[in-house]
Write a structure and sequence with these properties.
7-stranded antiparallel beta sheet; mainly beta; 5-stranded antiparallel beta sheet
Length: 400
């Protein structure tokens, strides 16, 4: 079993963050004639089940790094001990029930329902070998909105429930590819469950049917939320944003008067992140924030966002955000802080700390105890998909 523990210097500054490898790319065996075939792991998602003091780390297991070679979800379990270290069970669990026949499972998105103590794992099912590009080229959506549940902190899982017809319905005819997350969902103070999502829509010339229009440049992703007010029994789809917003995560902001606002942070191709606010808990996102302070990396990369309660008087909600910090390439996974989360100008100009120096990509953040955080991240030495690693950390006091 491995263990991970947060570190802090006597002066309050973070030391080099200790990381534990959770999933590692497996190179082809010598003499393997398949050459490029290898087992790879991508798309991290993390959840902490407080009642069990247990972290569950999810990823896609793939034959190669390509999206079309995704096979199934894998999960590893880590238990937090009294010394504030995480002991990881050796080996991973294959989530065989989280699937549909002749489909591949993608974009794990877990959320824990606290009243019924039910863990939901939402995901996307796409027909085998059907790519995102193929769905855009044909202007058709072939994905299915699915979930499985666990009542025992991930030891056993239900069979897959397909929500596509009941929740998306006829709207799917307006979409090309869509997906959830990836990364964690949210349960709001009201009890509402939130699953972040996005869907591509055709935004080119409506009178043009030539090949030049059926390209990525003529399709734009717009974020939305799937939500439930009855502990996950029934679900609804919110309205999509009206600005570009792709892979996304959401967080609840509680102001000094106890008013709730749902915040969305989304990937774009614009050179900066889309940030938006919902005043009706995800039914729509009526306010897009500026001044677009959070930079995007090259053509974009997924990032994670998390709200937490700062122990002040009165208590205040702050936001954490993790994302590669270089504007040109996926390197140096940075952690950013916003102490005024309803105002996007409040983000720190530089990373509060670097979670991984070097190649890094997708990540997922959780707060497991007040003021204590964890991150599951794609990272490596030569390229960002060498492994998915886990780290515990606290915020550096001098920078708060």
């Amino acid at each position: 079993m491995g263990n991970t523990t947060p570190s802090r210097s006597k002066q309050g500054c973070m030391k080099e963050i200790n990381k534990t490898t959770i999933f590692k790319q497996e190179e082809p065996q010598p003499g393997n004639c398949c050459c490029k075939t290898q087992v790879s792991y991508r798309i991290p998602a993390l959840v902490y089940v407080n009642d069990e003091k247990t972290f569950l780390a999810f990823a896609e297991k793939r034959k190669t790094l390509s999206d079309t070679n995704a096979e199934a979800f894998v999960m590893r379990r880590g238990m937090l001990n009294e010394a504030q270290e995480v002991e990881w069970v050796i080996g991973h669990q294959l989530l065989s029930s989280a699937s549909l026949p002749d489909h591949r499972s993608m974009n794990p998105c877990p959320v824990y329902e606290r009243e019924s103590k039910t863990l939901f794992l939402f995901f996307l099912c796409v027909p085998t070998k059907v790519s995102e590009y193929e769905q855009i080229r044909t202007n058709t959506c072939q994905g299915r909105l699915c979930y499985v549940t666990s009542k025992d902190a991930g030891n056993t899982w239900s069979q897959t429930t397909d929500l596509t017809e009941d929740v998306i319905g006829e709207r799917i005819k307006e979409w090309a590819p869509f997906a959830v997350g990836p990364g964690h969902g949210v349960q709001m103070k009201s009890g509402r469950l939130i699953i972040p999502a996005y869907a591509y829509c055709y935004t080119g010339n409506p009178d043009c049917i030539s090949c030049c229009c059926l390209m990525f440049s003529c399709f734009t992703p717009f974020a939305l939320a799937f939500y439930s007010d009855d502990q996950g029994i029934t679900w609804k789809a919110g309205k999509q944003m009206d600005v570009e917003s792709c892979e996304c995560q959401m967080a609840e902001i509680i102001d000094e008067e106890g008013k709730s606002t749902l915040y969305c942070n989304a990937r774009t191709r614009l050179g900066y992140r889309t940030e938006a606010l919902s005043y009706n808990s995800g039914a729509d996102f009526g306010k897009v924030l500026s001044p677009n302070k959070l930079i995007e990396t090259d053509s974009g990369c997924q990032g994670s966002v998390l709200s937490f309660l700062e122990q002040s008087d009165p208590p205040a909600t702050w936001l954490l955000y993790s994302h590669p910090s270089d504007p040109k390439s996926r390197v140096d996974l940075g952690l950013y802080l916003n102490k005024t989360p309803l105002d996007s100008s409040g983000w720190s100009d530089q990373p509060l700390l670097i979670l991984h120096r070097g190649p890094s990509a997708y990540s997922d953040l959780v707060e497991y105890e007040p003021g204590r955080f964890a991150c599951l991240m794609e990272c490596g030495i030569k390229h960002e998909n060498e492994e998915i690693a886990f780290a515990l950390f606290q915020l550096p006091e001098k920078k708060l």
